[in-house]
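Milestone 3.1: sequence recovery, worked example.
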């Protein structure tokens, strides 16, 4: 099975969304989750959950809306769900 490349499981489109989810996770954890909401938000949890969901939905469906919404829902669930469990839930100043 071809994993990386234009016709592979992980293509340039998937990597672009992975970068957006990662950057959004870092900014969201510091500025919103920790400072405004005073909650723990796991960066590792949000990134792993969103990318696994994105890749699985990409194989199953060929609709961009389903991919993005499913990835964002998994991003929130993984971030807030694993925030108290993992040790990466708080960002320092």
């Amino acid at each position: 099975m071809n994993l990386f490349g234009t016709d592979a499981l992980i293509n340039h489109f998937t990597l672009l969304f992975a970068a957006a989810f990662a950057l959004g996770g870092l900014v969201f954890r510091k500025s919103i989750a920790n400072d405004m909401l005073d909650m723990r938000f796991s960066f590792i949890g949000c990134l792993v959950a969103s990318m696994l969901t994105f890749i699985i939905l990409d194989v199953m469906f060929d609709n961009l809306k389903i991919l993005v919404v499913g990835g964002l829902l998994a991003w929130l669930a993984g971030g807030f769900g694993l925030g108290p469990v993992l040790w990466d839930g708080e960002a320092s100043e």
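The two ends are 44 Å apart (CA to CA). The mean pLDDT is 86.
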